[in-house]
Amino acid sequence: MAIKKFMYLNRKASYGTAYAIESLEVVLIAAAFDQDVSLAFIDDGVYQIVEGQNTDGIGMKNFSKTFHALGDYDINKLYVSAESLEERGLTADDLMPLVYEDEDDDWEEKPSVKIVSNAELTKIMSEQDVCLSF
Amino acid sequence: MADILGAEVDEEGFLVNLKDWTKEIAVEMAKGDDIDLADENADLFHERWDVLNLLRDYFEEYQIAPAVRVLTKAVGKKLGKDKGSSKYLYTLFPYGPGKQGCKFAGLPKPTGCI
Fold first, then answer.
1. The model scores a pTM over 0.90
2. Which of A117, B34, B35, B79 is the most exposed, having the fewest neighbouring CB atoms within 10 Å of its CB?
3. CB A68 to CB B62 under 8 A?
Protein backbone atom coordinates (compact mmCIF):
# COMPACT_ATOMS: atom_id res chain seq x y z
CA MET A 1 0.00 0.00 0.00
CA ALA A 2 1.38 3.39 -0.96
CA ILE A 3 2.01 5.74 1.92
CA LYS A 4 0.03 8.93 1.71
CA LYS A 5 0.53 12.13 3.61
CA PHE A 6 -2.48 12.76 5.84
CA MET A 7 -2.93 15.97 7.77
CA TYR A 8 -5.63 16.36 10.39
CA LEU A 9 -6.72 19.94 11.02
CA ASN A 10 -8.05 20.54 14.52
CA ARG A 11 -9.99 23.77 14.76
CA LYS A 12 -12.28 23.32 17.77
CA ALA A 13 -11.76 23.17 21.54
CA SER A 14 -11.80 19.77 23.24
CA TYR A 15 -15.10 19.37 25.01
CA GLY A 16 -17.92 21.53 23.61
CA THR A 17 -18.35 19.29 20.57
CA ALA A 18 -17.25 15.79 19.57
CA TYR A 19 -14.88 17.04 16.84
CA ALA A 20 -11.68 16.89 18.90
CA ILE A 21 -12.10 13.37 20.26
CA GLU A 22 -13.37 12.08 16.91
CA SER A 23 -10.30 13.52 15.21
CA LEU A 24 -7.99 11.84 17.72
CA GLU A 25 -9.73 8.48 17.20
CA VAL A 26 -9.33 8.72 13.42
CA VAL A 27 -5.69 9.74 13.82
CA LEU A 28 -4.96 6.64 15.93
CA ILE A 29 -6.72 4.40 13.43
CA ALA A 30 -4.83 5.92 10.49
CA ALA A 31 -1.55 5.40 12.37
CA ALA A 32 -2.28 1.68 12.57
CA PHE A 33 -2.22 1.62 8.75
CA ASP A 34 1.33 3.02 8.54
CA GLN A 35 0.44 6.31 6.88
CA ASP A 36 2.40 9.55 7.17
CA VAL A 37 0.29 11.43 9.69
CA SER A 38 0.61 15.00 10.89
CA LEU A 39 -1.69 17.18 12.97
CA ALA A 40 -2.36 20.89 12.85
CA PHE A 41 -3.93 22.93 15.63
CA ILE A 42 -5.60 26.12 14.45
CA ASP A 43 -8.15 28.54 15.93
CA ASP A 44 -9.73 27.10 19.13
CA GLY A 45 -8.05 23.78 18.24
CA VAL A 46 -4.94 25.01 20.07
CA TYR A 47 -6.83 24.54 23.35
CA GLN A 48 -6.76 20.76 22.75
CA ILE A 49 -3.10 20.51 23.73
CA VAL A 50 -3.05 23.04 26.56
CA GLU A 51 -1.37 21.64 29.69
CA GLY A 52 -3.30 21.03 32.91
CA GLN A 53 -6.78 20.16 31.65
CA ASN A 54 -9.26 19.01 34.26
CA THR A 55 -12.64 17.59 33.25
CA ASP A 56 -13.96 16.74 36.73
CA GLY A 57 -16.55 19.51 36.59
CA ILE A 58 -18.08 18.43 33.29
CA GLY A 59 -18.09 14.67 33.91
CA MET A 60 -16.23 13.82 30.70
CA LYS A 61 -13.14 11.73 30.03
CA ASN A 62 -9.95 13.83 30.06
CA PHE A 63 -8.62 12.60 26.73
CA SER A 64 -5.84 15.18 26.64
CA LYS A 65 -3.72 12.44 28.22
CA THR A 66 -4.02 10.48 25.00
CA PHE A 67 -1.95 13.07 23.11
CA HIS A 68 1.04 11.80 25.11
CA ALA A 69 0.60 8.40 23.43
CA LEU A 70 0.94 9.80 19.90
CA GLY A 71 4.74 9.48 19.97
CA ASP A 72 4.42 5.72 20.49
CA TYR A 73 2.24 5.62 17.38
CA ASP A 74 5.00 7.35 15.39
CA ILE A 75 2.97 10.53 15.14
CA ASN A 76 5.48 13.26 15.84
CA LYS A 77 4.53 16.16 13.61
CA LEU A 78 2.18 18.42 15.54
CA TYR A 79 2.00 21.91 14.05
CA VAL A 80 0.48 24.73 16.07
CA SER A 81 -0.54 28.05 14.56
CA ALA A 82 1.49 30.86 16.14
CA GLU A 83 -1.24 33.38 15.29
CA SER A 84 -3.98 31.26 16.89
CA LEU A 85 -1.93 30.94 20.09
CA GLU A 86 -1.26 34.66 20.24
CA GLU A 87 -4.92 35.61 19.60
CA ARG A 88 -5.82 33.56 22.69
CA GLY A 89 -3.05 34.93 24.90
CA LEU A 90 -1.25 31.58 24.92
CA THR A 91 2.43 30.78 24.50
CA ALA A 92 4.48 27.62 23.89
CA ASP A 93 4.81 27.25 27.68
CA ASP A 94 1.06 26.72 28.03
CA LEU A 95 1.15 23.60 25.84
CA MET A 96 1.71 19.99 26.92
CA PRO A 97 5.35 18.89 26.53
CA LEU A 98 4.60 16.23 23.91
CA VAL A 99 7.60 14.17 22.84
CA TYR A 100 8.57 11.15 20.77
CA GLU A 101 11.60 8.84 20.86
CA ASP A 102 13.72 9.16 17.74
CA GLU A 103 14.49 5.65 16.49
CA ASP A 104 17.31 6.96 14.28
CA ASP A 105 18.98 8.86 17.11
CA ASP A 106 19.38 6.29 19.91
CA TRP A 107 15.75 6.75 21.04
CA GLU A 108 16.40 10.26 22.23
CA GLU A 109 13.28 12.11 23.35
CA LYS A 110 12.47 14.98 21.05
CA PRO A 111 9.60 17.47 21.02
CA SER A 112 6.69 16.69 18.69
CA VAL A 113 5.12 20.14 18.82
CA LYS A 114 6.26 22.81 16.39
CA ILE A 115 4.86 26.31 16.40
CA VAL A 116 4.58 27.71 12.89
CA SER A 117 3.12 30.81 11.25
CA ASN A 118 -0.07 30.48 9.24
CA ALA A 119 1.96 31.10 6.09
CA GLU A 120 4.23 28.14 6.91
CA LEU A 121 1.21 26.03 7.76
CA THR A 122 -0.35 26.84 4.36
CA LYS A 123 2.82 25.57 2.69
CA ILE A 124 2.85 22.35 4.77
CA MET A 125 -0.82 21.79 3.94
CA SER A 126 -0.15 22.16 0.22
CA GLU A 127 2.37 19.29 0.46
CA GLN A 128 -0.26 16.83 1.79
CA ASP A 129 -2.15 14.20 -0.18
CA VAL A 130 -5.15 14.47 2.12
CA CYS A 131 -6.25 17.16 4.58
CA LEU A 132 -9.11 16.31 6.91
CA SER A 133 -10.72 19.14 8.84
CA PHE A 134 -12.31 18.63 12.26
CA MET B 1 -27.86 -8.40 28.40
CA ALA B 2 -24.89 -10.55 29.29
CA ASP B 3 -22.95 -10.16 32.52
CA ILE B 4 -19.91 -11.59 34.30
CA LEU B 5 -20.20 -11.69 38.11
CA GLY B 6 -22.87 -9.00 37.82
CA ALA B 7 -20.82 -6.68 35.58
CA GLU B 8 -22.37 -5.88 32.20
CA VAL B 9 -20.40 -6.97 29.12
CA ASP B 10 -20.96 -6.32 25.41
CA GLU B 11 -21.56 -8.94 22.71
CA GLU B 12 -17.80 -9.59 22.44
CA GLY B 13 -17.32 -9.97 26.20
CA PHE B 14 -15.73 -6.57 26.90
CA LEU B 15 -16.78 -4.72 30.04
CA VAL B 16 -19.31 -1.96 29.38
CA ASN B 17 -18.33 0.02 32.47
CA LEU B 18 -14.58 -0.05 32.91
CA LYS B 19 -14.91 0.80 36.61
CA ASP B 20 -16.59 -2.57 37.23
CA TRP B 21 -13.29 -4.43 36.74
CA THR B 22 -11.96 -6.71 39.47
CA LYS B 23 -9.37 -9.49 39.42
CA GLU B 24 -12.20 -11.96 39.92
CA ILE B 25 -13.86 -10.75 36.71
CA ALA B 26 -10.57 -11.21 34.82
CA VAL B 27 -10.28 -14.74 36.19
CA GLU B 28 -13.85 -15.51 35.14
CA MET B 29 -13.38 -14.08 31.61
CA ALA B 30 -10.17 -16.11 31.19
CA LYS B 31 -11.90 -19.29 32.32
CA GLY B 32 -14.19 -18.97 29.33
CA ASP B 33 -11.12 -18.99 27.07
CA ASP B 34 -9.48 -21.93 28.91
CA ILE B 35 -6.84 -19.73 30.57
CA ASP B 36 -6.11 -19.98 34.30
CA LEU B 37 -5.55 -16.58 35.88
CA ALA B 38 -6.41 -17.74 39.41
CA ASP B 39 -3.78 -20.37 40.30
CA GLU B 40 -0.37 -18.80 40.70
CA ASN B 41 1.29 -22.11 39.88
CA ALA B 42 -0.56 -22.25 36.58
CA ASP B 43 1.37 -22.03 33.35
CA LEU B 44 2.40 -18.43 32.47
CA PHE B 45 0.44 -17.06 35.45
CA HIS B 46 2.92 -14.30 36.36
CA GLU B 47 3.76 -13.50 32.74
CA ARG B 48 0.09 -12.97 31.92
CA TRP B 49 -0.58 -10.81 34.95
CA ASP B 50 2.52 -8.70 34.19
CA VAL B 51 1.02 -7.83 30.80
CA LEU B 52 -2.50 -7.29 32.18
CA ASN B 53 -1.14 -4.91 34.83
CA LEU B 54 0.87 -3.09 32.19
CA LEU B 55 -2.27 -2.72 30.06
CA ARG B 56 -4.17 -1.25 33.00
CA ASP B 57 -1.32 1.17 33.76
CA TYR B 58 -1.16 2.18 30.10
CA PHE B 59 -4.89 2.90 30.04
CA GLU B 60 -4.69 4.88 33.28
CA GLU B 61 -1.89 7.00 31.83
CA TYR B 62 -3.12 7.52 28.26
CA GLN B 63 -6.89 6.77 28.40
CA ILE B 64 -6.69 4.40 25.44
CA ALA B 65 -6.10 0.71 24.85
CA PRO B 66 -2.81 0.47 22.94
CA ALA B 67 -2.54 -0.99 19.43
CA VAL B 68 -0.61 -4.29 19.37
CA ARG B 69 2.45 -2.59 17.86
CA VAL B 70 2.47 -0.04 20.69
CA LEU B 71 1.84 -2.68 23.35
CA THR B 72 4.73 -4.76 22.03
CA LYS B 73 7.03 -1.76 22.31
CA ALA B 74 5.85 -0.98 25.86
CA VAL B 75 6.25 -4.61 27.01
CA GLY B 76 9.81 -4.69 25.64
CA LYS B 77 10.61 -1.50 27.49
CA LYS B 78 9.00 -2.35 30.85
CA LEU B 79 9.24 -6.16 31.11
CA GLY B 80 12.42 -6.89 29.19
CA LYS B 81 13.53 -6.79 25.57
CA ASP B 82 13.06 -10.54 25.04
CA LYS B 83 9.36 -10.14 25.85
CA GLY B 84 8.74 -7.28 23.44
CA SER B 85 7.67 -9.47 20.54
CA SER B 86 4.23 -10.25 19.20
CA LYS B 87 5.19 -13.95 19.21
CA TYR B 88 5.65 -13.83 22.99
CA LEU B 89 2.41 -11.90 23.50
CA TYR B 90 0.49 -14.36 21.34
CA THR B 91 1.86 -17.18 23.51
CA LEU B 92 0.22 -15.52 26.49
CA PHE B 93 -2.97 -14.52 24.71
CA PRO B 94 -3.59 -16.76 21.71
CA TYR B 95 -6.68 -14.82 20.57
CA GLY B 96 -4.57 -11.68 20.23
CA PRO B 97 -2.84 -9.63 22.91
CA GLY B 98 -4.89 -6.60 21.95
CA LYS B 99 -8.26 -8.23 21.87
CA GLN B 100 -7.94 -10.90 24.57
CA GLY B 101 -5.48 -9.05 26.81
CA CYS B 102 -7.51 -5.85 26.81
CA LYS B 103 -10.69 -7.80 27.52
CA PHE B 104 -9.24 -9.53 30.59
CA ALA B 105 -7.69 -6.25 31.77
CA GLY B 106 -11.10 -4.56 31.61
CA LEU B 107 -10.10 -2.14 28.84
CA PRO B 108 -12.15 -1.26 25.76
CA LYS B 109 -11.28 -2.91 22.47
CA PRO B 110 -8.15 -1.22 21.08
CA THR B 111 -8.83 1.68 18.71
CA GLY B 112 -8.33 0.49 15.15
CA CYS B 113 -8.73 -3.16 16.13
CA ILE B 114 -11.31 -4.73 13.84
1. no
2. B34
3. yes
